[in-house]
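My current task is to audit a protein record that another person submitted. What it holds is a sequence and that sequence's fold in token form. Thanks in advance; the entry in question is below.
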Amino acid sequence: MEAVGAARVFDLEQPRYAGAPSHPAHAPGFNYFLHRHHARGAPEARTSASGLVVMPEHSGTHIDALAHQAENMILHGGVHVDSGVQTSAGFRVHGIDTLAPLVGRGVLLDVARTQLLPADHAITRQELEQAASVEGVDLRAGDVVLVRTGYGALWTEGPQYLHAAGVSAGGSRWLIDRGVRAVGADNIAWDVIGPPDPELGVTLPGHMLLLVRAGIPIIENLNLEELAEARVHEFGFVCLPLKMRGATGSPVPAGAFLPSGWVRPRRPSSRSSQSALWAHARVGPSPCRWSAHAWSYQRSHRQRVRSLSTSPRGCSTYRSSTRPTD
């Protein structure tokens, strides 16, 4: 037990506040109302205050239940969506209350490393493989794999955050093939919010592949900055969904921990680091022109946030009157 108390802990949850980024399908996002106040004139010395939280299940740092997505009205495991499964009070099958706590080995695939990925960039299988290779980590069955795009540092920049990079359908398939237990990312929807996938014909293809076909839950809006700053790529991972009966998701506290005595791994050689930094550039042309200082490496988290800026000109972003529902 002493070792547990001495472990280094990383808080992976983003702050919750009114006006925080929220997927358009999950408006109005987080809201808090203080309705009981400390006030003078109470009949005793003790006073009390309390409030009311109003928010969608899928706001802030949260995890998706398997009931969250269906393919042709069929949930994971061949469960047909009908009145016996989907009710006004929630789901009788695959609700978030059926998801056990996630406690086990976590792996960070830091695709962004010291740079912010282009807006709406789809992270490929090759980029995930290269991130694992550069970090020297092997994915194992049962791992929880977290993908860093760099957009977690822009949590307070709503419009820019909504155009975060995301994992492509091919990247999701690669993780499914590795036998992962769960996945997560520092973006709004795991996938890129954009047009339908040309092969699957749906928006947010990773949601269908992971939740429906593979039964793998997705954690979104993670804060992976401190973990990346410490160059920690393997760790103990904890995520505890709320036991909300029949709900399609849950806000979650998520954390990573390292045992006492952990030694930081050696930094990769400059040659291999440079190769990793620009790996995504070889996949295809960047959809944005980026200001040079966006790539500068900053040691402190606060400096890192200030440095992640983009050129306001030359960015092409997806525009549609109907956005995919997460």
